[in-house]
Write a structure and sequence with these properties.
This protein is α+β, with helices and mostly antiparallel strands. It contains seven helices and 19 strands. It has two domains: 2-67, SH3 type barrels; 77-284, Fumarylacetoacetase-like, C-terminal domain (Fumarylacetoacetate hydrolase, domain 2, Alpha-Beta Complex), CATH 3.90.850.10. Strands 1, 2, 3, 4, 5, 6, 7, 8, 11, 12, 14 and 17 form a twelve-stranded mixed beta sheet that branches. It has a five-stranded mixed beta sheet with strand order 9-19-18-15-16, with no helix packed on it.
C-alpha cells in the first residue's frame, strides 16, 4: 500500500495511491484518522482497514491533487552520517564503529515537489539522497530480528545540507536542519510491499546529471540495526523518520566541488518507492518573521 498525504480544494488529508489515482480515505473510510501520524498511531488494524476500504474504491487523478510530505511534522527525524563505504571514502574519514546519529528538525520537512531554499546566510548547499524509514509503532529496546514489526514503511528523502554550517561544530544539527531542507515522499510505501529494504537501487540527479548511484545493500548499518540502536536509548513513536545515510557522489566531494545553485533541480529515485524532485530557490524575504 502507498499511503500519501494530499491536498485539493477540499483540504488536506490522507489517501491510498493506486496507479495514477488516489483513494480519498476521508470518503472511503470516514472513521479513520485524516492525518498520517494519527493514522499510523491507530495501529495495524487501522492500516488494514485503509487497505480494505481502498480496494476497488473510486480514485481522484493524481494530476488533480498536490502531494504533500507524507508526514508533515514528524515527531522526530533521526539521521545517520557516513553510512555507505564509498561516502566514508570520499569524505576521507574512518568508518564509524557505531551509527553516527544526528537530528534534523521537524520544521525542515517539505513535500516531494516543493522547492527548497538557498539560505541567505550561505551558498554551500548540497544534496544527499537517502532511504527514509518511517516508524509505525511505539517501541523501545527493539531487537534487530523484530525491527520490521516497528516499521510502517519507507520514503525517498533528501538530507539537504548546508556544508559550512554543518562543519562549524562537532554536532551537525544546525547545518542539517534549515527550513525546507528535508524533502520527502512521494508517499509511504508500506513495509509489507518491500520484501527487502536492503536491496533497493538509489539514484540522485542534479539537472539530469547522475550524481549518486548505489544500492541500499551497501548500508554499513542497515535499517533494522538502526531501529535496534536508536530504540536502546529512547522510545520510537509512530511518524518518526530515520534517514539512513547517503551513498557517495555528494557535491562537496566532487573534484572540483559541485554544490547546488539557485535554479538547480534535484531528483532522487529509489527502486519500488518512487521519486521526489525539488527545485532550489532563493530563500524568500518573508521568512524573516516573528509570529
Amino acid at each position: 500500500m502507498k499511503l500519501a498525504t494530499f491536498t485539493d480544494s477540499s483540504g488536506t488529508r490522507v489517501g491510498v495511491v493506486q496507479g495514477d489515482g488516489i483513494v480519498d480515505l476521508a470518503s472511503a473510510a470516514p472513521d479513520l484518522p485524516r492525518e498520517m501520524t494519527a493514522l499510523l498511531g491507530a495501529g495495524p488494524d487501522a492500516l488494514a482497514a485503509a487497505a480494505r476500504a481502498s480496494d476497488g474504491a473510486t480514485t481522484i487523478p493524481l494530476a488533480d491533487v498536490r502531494l504533500e510530505a507524507p508526514i508533515g511534522r514528524p515527531p522526530k527525524i533521526m539521521a545517520v552520517g557516513l553510512n555507505y563505504a564509498d561516502h566514508v571514502a570520499e569524505a576521507g574519514l574512518e568508518t564509524p564503529k557505531l551509527p553516527l546519529v544526528f537530528n534534523k528538525q521537524p520544521t525542515s520537512v517539505i513535500g516531494p515537489s516543493d522547492p527548497f531554499h538557498m539560505p541567505r546566510v550561505s551558498s554551500a548547499l548540497d544534496y544527499e539522497g537517502e532511504l527514509g524509514v518511517v516508524i509505525g509503532r511505539r517501541c523501545r529496546h527493539v531487537p534487530k530480528d523484530r525491527a520490521v514489526e516497528a516499521i510502517a514503511g519507507y520514503v525517498v528523502l533528501n538530507d539537504v545540507t548546508v556544508r559550512d554550517w554543518q562543519l562549524r561544530t562537532p554536532t551537525w544539527t544546525i547545518g542539517k536542519s534549515f527550513d525546507t531542507h528535508c524533502p520527502m515522499g512521494p508517499w509511504i510505501t508500506t513495509a509489507d510491499e518491500v520484501d527487502d529494504p536492503h536491496s533497493l537501487g538509489i539514484k540522485t540527479w542534479v539537472n539530469d546529471e547522475l550524481r549518486q548511484s548505489s544500492n541500499t545493500k551497501h548500508l554499513i548499518f542497515d535499517a533494522f540495526t538502526l531501529v535496534e540502536h536508536l530504540s536502546t536509548a529512547f522510545t520510537l513513536e509512530p511518524g518518526d523518520v530515520i534517514a539512513t545515510g547517503t551513498p557517495g557522489g555528494v557535491g562537496i566531494a566532487m573534484k572540483p566541488p559541485k554544490l547546488l545553485v539557485v535554479g538547480d533541480v534535484v531528483k532522487i529515485a529509489i527502486e519500488r518507492l518512487g521519486e521526489i524532485e525539488n527545485h532550489v530557490i532563493e530563500e524568500p524575504a518573508d521568512t524573516a518573521v516573528i509570529a
